[in-house]
Amino acid sequence: MDTVLDEQNLVRNEEGDFRSEFLHAVEAALEAEDIAEVRSLTGDLHEGDLADLLELLKPEERDQLITQLGHEFNPAALSELDEGVRDQLLATLPAEVVADALQQLDTDDAVYLLEDLAEEDRNAILDQLPRLDQLTLKKSLEYPEDSAGRIMRTEVISVPPFWSVGQTIDFMRESEDLPDRFDEIFVVDPAFHLIGSVALNRLLRSKRHVNIEDITDHDLRPIQAESDQEDVAREFERYNLSSAPVVDQDNRLIGVITADDVVEVVQEEAEEDILRLAGVSSNTGMSDSVWGTTRQRFAWLLVNLATAILASYVISLFDATIEQMVALAVLMPIVASMGGNAGTQTMTVAVRALATRDLGRVNAFRVIGRETAVGLLNGLLFAILMALVTYFWFGRTDLGVIIALAMIVNLVVAGLAGILVPLGLNELGVDPAITSGVFVTTVTDVVGFFAFLGLAALWLL
Amino acid sequence: MDTVLDEQNLVRNEEGDFRSEFLHAVEAALEAEDIAEVRSLTGDLHEGDLADLLELLKPEERDQLITQLGHEFNPAALSELDEGVRDQLLATLPAEVVADALQQLDTDDAVYLLEDLAEEDRNAILDQLPRLDQLTLKKSLEYPEDSAGRIMRTEVISVPPFWSVGQTIDFMRESEDLPDRFDEIFVVDPAFHLIGSVALNRLLRSKRHVNIEDITDHDLRPIQAESDQEDVAREFERYNLSSAPVVDQDNRLIGVITADDVVEVVQEEAEEDILRLAGVSSNTGMSDSVWGTTRQRFAWLLVNLATAILASYVISLFDATIEQMVALAVLMPIVASMGGNAGTQTMTVAVRALATRDLGRVNAFRVIGRETAVGLLNGLLFAILMALVTYFWFGRTDLGVIIALAMIVNLVVAGLAGILVPLGLNELGVDPAITSGVFVTTVTDVVGFFAFLGLAALWLL
């Protein structure tokens, strides 16, 4: 245990931040090609820390580190990398090195390394592997991206129901080729159809002569290999699973997913939603290049430009009115901005609730009603506030009334748009996290400017 | 397994959405006080589905359901509820019912039920429990909110290092009071100091005469009970843990955290960040009341109003210029809006990277440099675009040049603010997810209006 603490102290401070001193020490050793020092600094690192180190290094330093570590390089670090750094490294490492790494990994980690490679590069690597490993990996890669089949481990232990506890334990004691860690065994029929599972603690507490079928737990929640990983994560969360068997369409056992895999999935999916809501592509990392980042952000900003121009067009319809009273130009962004923020609040809650299935057809009407009411209430509150501010600022009652009315209209519309847009997109099968924002802010901008300037034009005529 | 599928079909459709028909059937049975029907519909539900059902019911129906289910009510559902519904139910259920439920739960779930109750209500419930359970729960509740001590299970199995495998297995076979499921046992010294762990599969595969100390895994990552759950989640993710022992300050074993608990934590923490970024309080649920929701949203909208007024004040400084050329009023929201969106993109990436520790002092300078460069590049691209749009719309070259310059300035500032604001707040110990948004959009609004209108004022003078 002391070694764990010491090692952590070297790499990270108490807050878990990576230490600059450590990074610089590694960089210095790499530059000096002091292989002994590189190995002594990084040879014992946990794969998670080694991956973070690789991400912090410059691209050329990453290759140097792996080359200088040689056989002391822990290939598990590769499967812990951001996609960007992973792909950069796989493109530069020799196929033999990657193939060697793959053989040391569980299937799910090996698949992560291979999945985004070009057909040709992938085959070059697979060709270096023993026949059986090749087949297993090719099989896993046939499942759709982000499916249960991709994140499962195929290393499972299965026994027939008629074995005794003693036979099962002896089988495990004698087998060489068992997974590193497993917490349950599965019970299958001769055709490998899933019958149930036995947790190891149950097995341990049973007498040797007891039959497996008598301690089999049939209350499983098997996962179809084609299921989306997001659905898998929801199953784990909803039913507090610590693991779940993965089956094919014929209910034949083909793998297992454990809660520690799901931790990564939940993190990844939530990250995706957060970034998408802000208009950022989801495979963004801190180590991306300037040009790559610029391109990723450009598309969303271009969409935003179109909506901003649309809002400006609405303003231009009232240029004569604004010319008459410049105070309108001063105040109009307030109405639009309040609508945008209120709409974003509602929309974000809705997008998350759709993702966690807390919002669906079953309660859509109730939630729409609530959001409209909330928009109306906050609209009234801010209408009063803004009417007062306007009166004291510009000394005009008419302007106060106009902005108050526009505020009410826009906050009700914001609430409605914030809930209806994500619900509608979801019904259409479009990911509401990516697209809701554009629609909602377009609506609140256009309605905000139109309501405020339109009311002003009517009143002042 | 068929039963599992049938049950799922009844409650949820293939997409995992809760079925309206099922909800309505339950509501009808509750209203008719048809207890047999209520029990047959909901008596066998998994706690996760039962909790979702409770959340979908109206408050008075929730009490009815629990009362009508009587002893068939599965108390585990209570610990799966949203905070709002949980607190509503705990306030109305009799203390004996809650106490009865608590005794059937693991400590971590029991703590979740009790943690937000008023001192008085909590004691009323605890008084109904056996002395030992009272002490355990009171101890757990002493740990800070959202700490490892709150989410750990105290039910662990620990053995001395000098026991043999056989002795250990016999001990487990004979003990009555073991946790429902455990996948490893811990090795401790007589004072309960943590020495290591033995995974059950390791135990099973060892001969009976082997000593525990010879198969003990010392490479643990023990977690301090006071650690924040967010740090715990990061440890699990970084090191792919499936479980971790929790220790007190003297390194004495006091509990265990497993990956399935961490799935919930990751979900909760990511949810918190998503909602906070949009200015929504994080314990928001689909079943909150109109008034509660209005209040939650009001505070953020009020802050936004203040910043919007500040931006309007900047506009008002140039009212004479706008009077001279109304096209400025038409175009100015575009500059501000592009800056706001670009700033939000950078800020969101930064807030997430800070949360996952992918961004820290070690790479702050590099990332700041990158974001400035990205801002400049996108600024240039959109400057050209907007100059063209303006020229074709208003037929004026000078206006095109002005908006192009303002765009470059604002997108560079947006990139800088997007990264510096979260970094700065983080250094000050403030959660960047809550507060970054206000600062970033204030900066981009103010700079956007100031740059565009200021340049126009200079040019047109």
The gross shape of chain A turns out to be globular
Spatial extent as radius of gyration of chain A: 29 Å
Calculate the mean pLDDT score of chain A and round it: 90
Chain pair forming the biggest interface: A-B, 132 and 132 residues
Distance between the termini of chain A: 81 Å
Largest β-sheet summary of chain A: 3 strands, mixed
CATH architecture of the largest domain in chain A: Orthogonal Bundle
Number of helices of chain A: 22
The CATH class of the largest domain in chain A, by name, is Mainly Alpha
Kindly report the CATH topology of the largest domain in chain A: Tetracycline Repressor, domain 2
Number of folding domains of chain A? 3
- Write out the strand line-up for the largest beta sheet of chain A, numbering strands in chain order: 1-2-3
| Global structural class of chain A | mainly alpha
Residue windows where pLDDT falls under 50 for at least 5 positions of chain A: 1-8
Percent helix of chain A: 55-70%
SSE string of chain A, helices as H and strands as E: HHHHHHHHHHHEHEEHHEHEEHHHHHHH
Give a structural overview:
- Chains A, B: Belongs to the SLC41A transporter family.
- Chains A, B: This is Magnesium transporter MgtE.
- Chains A, B: Residues 215-272 form the CBS domain.
- Chains A, B: Acts as a magnesium transporter.
- Chains A, B: InterPro entries: CBS_dom, CBS_dom_sf, Mg_transptr_MgtE_intracell_dom, MgtE_N_sf, MgtE_transporter, SLC41_membr_dom, SLC41_membr_dom_sf.
- Two copies of one chain form a homodimer.
- In chain A, 66% of the residues lie in helices and 6% in strands.
- The first copy, chain A, has 461 residues and is mainly alpha-helical.
- Chain A has helices at 2-11, 20-31, 35-42, 47-56, 59-69, 83-92, 95-103, 107-114, 119-126, 131-142, 148-151, 165-174, 200-204, 212-215, 229-238, 259-277, 290-316, 319-324, 327-355, 361-394, 397-427, 432-460, and strands spanning 158-159, 184-188, 194-199, 223-224, 243-247, 253-258.
- In chain A, the strands form two sheets. In chain A, strands 1-2-3 form a three-stranded mixed sheet.
- In chain A, α7 (95-103) crosses α9 (119-126) and α21 packs antiparallel against α22 (432-460).
- The model of chain A is unreliable at 1-8 (pLDDT under 50).
- In chain A, β2 and β3 form a beta hairpin.
- Chain A has three domains: 2-145, MgtE N-terminal fold (Alpha Horseshoe), CATH 1.25.60.10; 158-277, CBS-domain, CATH 3.10.580.10; 290-460, Orthogonal Bundle (Tetracycline Repressor, domain 2).
- The first copy, chain A, is built from 22 helices and six strands.
- Chain A is globular and about 95 Å long.
- Chains A and B meet through α4, α12, β3, α13 and α15 of A and α4, α12, β3, α13 and α14 of B.
